[in-house]
Design a protein that fits this description.
Layout: H1 2-19, H2 28-35, H3 39-44, H4 51-63, H5 67-84, H6 88-97
């Protein structure tokens, strides 16, 4: 009986090692948290974005690695941009102005389902 418990514990610990380290999927809350420092700039700013904004944008760009993550980020940004009333030119130029790339255009018209 003790050896069965030890085997079970070994299998259980092995599963934790194999599956426990998997990264959680990106959520819209993650996207908003990363880009919160950009909101005032995107609504009323001009010129270069503030460095905390670029740090958040870079965090988002590096965190959105899977197709699902990229589509989630895109959909979230698209919905938030409609509700927050950001300047579309600033939103579109944010990735380039921060020296990052995103796999989609920051625009209310982008089709997020086509992002891979």
């Amino acid at each position: 009986m003790a050896s069965l418990a030890i085997r079970f514990m070994g299998v259980f610990l092995g599963m934790i090692v194999l599956f426990g380290g998997a990264a959680a999927a990106l959520t819209c809350s993650d996207v908003i948290k990363d880009l919160k420092p950009c909101i005032e700039y995107l609504k009323n700013g001009s010129g270069a974005p503030p460095s905390p904004c670029c740090a958040g944008a870079a965090s988002l760009a590096s965190g959105a690695t899977t197709t699902a993550d990229k589509q989630t980020a895109c959909t979230c940004l698209k919905n938030v941009s409609k509700n927050v009333n950001v300047k579309s030119g600033l939103a579109k130029s944010l990735p380039a102005n921060c020296g990052i790339t995103l796999p989609f255009e920051v625009s209310p018209n982008v089709d997020c389902s086509k992002i891979t």
